[in-house]
Amino acid sequence: MITVQTAAGRTYHVNPAGARAPVCRVATGTFTAGTATSLAMTVDDGTSLKVCSVALTPTGTTTTLGTVLNAAAGAATPSGCVTGVTPASGTGTITALNGKANAGGSTWRLSIDGASATTATRGTTINAGDTISLRYGS
């Protein structure tokens, strides 16, 4: 595996040519509290896909999905990536996003950096460099 660090401080790990399954992933890092940053996020409600950058200023070395969603409601580019989230506070399961509520076997699921999707909860830890993907479905 080859490790490359950019001038911006992001670290990438790449399998060399000839490896079975070439993979490139961004290493998870920590935020600098009080320093503005942004995270990549996608929101797929089953009928439309929104891709955005979320600006936020973390208060610690990690943040939570709830904090990112709240920031996205007010500071995402392009705007409208997140228009509302239920519950609006706390650490519980996301029961509605952008007006689309969990129903039957369909719920909001979260994948971070391409990992397997799990139930989206406001309390999920988010690290610097994470790519957040929210998808509605079963």
What does this structure look like?
By secondary structure, the protein is mainly β. The protein is built from 1 helix and 14 strands. A 6-stranded mixed beta sheet has the order 7-5-4-14-11-12. The longest helix is centred in the middle third of the chain and has 11 residues, at 65-75. It is globular and about 40 Å long. The model is unreliable at 19-25 (pLDDT under 50).
Question: Could you write a compact summary of the structure shown?
Answer:
This protein has one helix at 65-75, and strands spanning 2-5, 11-14, 24-26, 37-44, 49-56, 63-64, 76-77, 85-86, 96-97, 100-101, 107-112, 118-119, 125-126, 131-137. It is mainly β.
**Outline:** globular
Major pleated sheet: 6 strands, mixed
* Beta-strand percentage range: 35-45%
Q: What integer is the average pLDDT?
A: 87
- Looking across the biggest beta sheet, what order are the strands in? 7-5-4-14-11-12
- The succession of helices and strands, N to C, reads EEEEEEHEEEEEEEE
Rg from C-alpha positions? 16 Å
State the separation between the terminal residues, measured CA to CA. Answer: 35 Å
Structural class: mainly beta
Number of strands: 14
The count of helical stretches stands at 1
Contiguous runs where pLDDT drops below 50 for at least 5 residues: 19-25
Key traits:
six-stranded mixed β-sheet; 138 residues; single chain; three-stranded antiparallel β-sheet; 14 strands; mainly beta
